[in-house]
Design brief:
Chain lengths: 69, 578
């Protein structure tokens, strides 16, 4: 009905991905922040993962849109 | 032990963006809500993958996430029985054998199927019980959410209750079932993505799966019950006797009680779940819905149970500084395991994502309950007993759409009241879960007989439901789990038999209820006259329904192919973690 749910999912994860990747990048030297995650910059990695998920969703939405007449 | 978090601006930003999308989806769907069918049945237009993810997401409420992580800590990998035995086979059965009748009968709800197959009184009984229980369940989930917000984020109890209710109301009022379903898909992704960092970090902390097995061995073998060192990382290995495993149930009890009666009673008759598959766009899509849902379902244990098992290691390693908060009686609150893990591992940023995932799981449970309630209320109670359809279809459509919307508001308001009721009686959750299993088990017997035996009659089904419920009540009143300290747990009539654990008692209550209901229905069906003609039962009963022809569908999207893949995958998982 009406909307293609892949678009909002794709948009949301792209935004989350950009946000957390940037946050992770700017906080990469903050050792105190990443003490709970055992020194792993989990924001950067999660951000990149979500960015990939978001872009894949948007690409799928684009493909299914162009397939329809 | 302080369980409060300090969230930073980035965590709040993640939360706000998420809620903007949730409300945005409701808003975008508003213009499609032209009649009651669009609002209450999503216009039967959902693709199978959307319905399938919503199917699993409705069940992945916060009580499930929190409860299962806690069970991971308490019972280890044995908790996967709730998935690999207790859900997947029932979902496959629903898809292959029951969905053709639910969907093909054109019934708009499970109670309506009962009306078409049996009679008015059977529908009425089921509709009213379902409406009341759904709203109570929704209220309890809201209560749990507000308590969590208060304890973890330090938010005001009343404010978080009203705010979360307002968000759920806004998007279900705007977009009805479609909005609930689309949001469930969004919630599914956020729950997986939000909890994944916990799985990765916690496993890395203990040195992977092997490290986990090694660190658990000394902890488990030093327990007073003398469990084998690998009890927490195996599933069936120690189910030969009830005493050898922490569940306290042996393999046939798990198989019959959990794998058959409880899971079939839940997955195959609960309208909340079945409604997602009914919203699919075709019979094939409706059959594929539970099967597509089954694939993520079987991997969810790795997302929520495994971190719970790690928590047991953490709690026994003094240097980690990990401890569960205690309740008034000094017992650890296992439901808080997931929250303590979030606190343990996540820095600002992903922490916001994790908290958002928990919030999302609460809302999916609540919205699911509200959207199932308004359908049953509008079609099975209001349209049947208060204002039947008239000749004017257009004005009817508008009227029932209006009633559906009002039912949504009413449902949310009563849920809030139920949440306050729950805050007054601490035991209400145990009480409700007990009642649920008493109502669902007989229902499965009656629906199953209805679908596969054309001789089953309305009078018999109605009596069967009541008899099953009555026996469940009696069984609960006459038996009790060892160490029970409240009458809610059973034994309120007499103490005839003591079960070693509560779970064993629940299994047997369900087994007695289901078999009583089946026997009563069969015997009375043979004694009473079938009032429905074969023609009326067409599409409702197996022998009177034309076989589904799947030849037009490519073999790789056929339900039977998918079902085989699902069963194969779950067998592999079972063997790997035997």
């Amino acid at each position: 009905m009406g909307i293609d749910i892949k678009i909002p999912i794709g948009l949301m994860f792209t935004i989350f991905g950009l946000l957390l990747t940037a946050y992770g990048f700017f906080t990469r030297l903050d050792a105190a922040l990443y003490k709970p995650s055992m020194g792993i910059n989990i924001n950067l990695w999660s951000g990149l993962g979500m960015l990939i998920l978001g872009v894949i969703m948007l690409a799928l939405a684009y493909i299914s849109r162009s397939q329809k007449p | 032990m302080n369980s409060e978090f300090i969230l930073s601006w980035i965590d709040y930003l993640v939360m706000i963006i998420y809620f903007a999308f949730v409300l945005g989806i409701g808003w975008a769907l508003k213009r499609y809500m032209k009649d009651a069918s669009a609002f209450l049945e999503a216009g039967r237009s959902m693709p199978a993958w959307v319905a399938g993810l919503a199917f699993i997401s409705t069940n992945l409420g916060a009580l499930e996430v929190m409860g299962m992580t806690g069970s991971g800590m308490k019972y280890g990998m044995l908790t996967t029985h709730f998935y690999w035995v207790g859900a997947i086979p029932a979902m496959v059965f629903l898809a292959i054998f029951m969905m053709p009748f639910y969907y093909g009968s054109k019934a708009r709800s499970v109670p309506e199927y009962l009306k078409l197959r049996y009679d008015e009184k059977t529908r009425g009984l089921n509709a009213i019980l379902f409406a009341v229980m759904t709203i109570l369940a929704s209220g309890i989930s809201m209560y749990a959410l507000a308590i969590l917000m208060e304890k973890v984020l330090g938010w005001n109890f009343h404010l978080s209750l009203i705010l979360s209710a307002a968000i759920v109301l806004a998007y279900t009022y705007l977009g009805g079932l479609s909005s609930a379903i689309y949001n469930e898909v969004l919630q599914f992704f956020i729950i997986v993505v939000g909890l994944l960092p916990i799985v990765i970090l916690s496993l890395k902390d203990v040195g992977g799966w092997h490290g986990l097995q090694q660190s658990l061995a000394p902890i488990v073998s030093h327990m007073p019950q003398h469990y084998a060192p690998d009890t927490w990382t195996t599933t069936w290995k120690y189910t030969g006797t009830a005493k050898a495993n922490p569940l306290g149930v042996e393999w046939y009890g798990i198989f019959a009680g959990l794998g058959f009666v409880l899971s079939f009673g839940y997955w195959c008759t609960n309208f909340l779940i079945v409604q997602r598959a009914m919203s699919a766009k075709s019979t094939t899509a409706a059959r594929n819905t539970p099967l597509i849902g089954a694939i993520p379902k079987m991997f969810i244990p790795f997302l929520i149970i495994v971190p719970g098992i790690v928590a047991l290691v953490l709690a026994n390693t003094p240097g980690k500084g990990f401890a569960l908060p205690l309740n008034e009686a000094g017992q650890p609150i296992y439901d808080y395991t997931i929250i303590m893990l979030l606190k343990q591992y996540l820095p600002a940023g992903v922490l916001g994502l994790g908290v958002t995932a928990l919030l999302a799981s609460f809302m999916s449970g609540m919205a699911g309950n509200v959207s199932a309630f308004n359908t049953v209320w509008t079609y099975d109670i209001y349209q049947s007993y208060i204002r039947p359809t008239t000749k004017d279809k257009v004005s009817d459509d508008n009227h029932y759409l209006f009633v559906g919307r009002m039912a949504t508001i009413f449902g949310v308001v009563v849920s809030i009241a139920a949440a306050y009721l729950a805050s007054l009686f601490g035991n209400i959750m145990d009480f409700l879960q007990t009642i649920f299993s008493m109502v669902n088990a007989p229902l499965f017997a009656v629906i199953f007989l209805g679908m596969f035996w054309k001789r089953a009659t309305g009078h018999a089904a109605f009596t069967g439901l009541l008899a099953g419920f009555f026996i469940a009540l009696m069984h609960h009143g006459l038996t009790f789990p060892e160490g029970a300290n409240t009458l809610v747990k059973g034994g309120w009539i007499a103490h005839l038999h003591a079960y070693p654990v509560e779970m064993a008692q629940n299994f047997w209550t369900a087994i007695f209820a289901c078999s009583t209901s089946a026997i009563v229905t069969v015997v009375l069906s043979l004694l009473t006259k079938q009032k429905k003609s074969d023609d009326e039962l067409k599409g409702l009963v197996y022998v009177l329904t034309p076989k589904l022809n799947e030849e037009a569908v490519p073999w790789y999207t056929r339900s039977t192919t998918l079902a085989i893949i699902v069963l194969l995958l779950v067998s592999i998982l079972t063997i790997l973690f035997w």
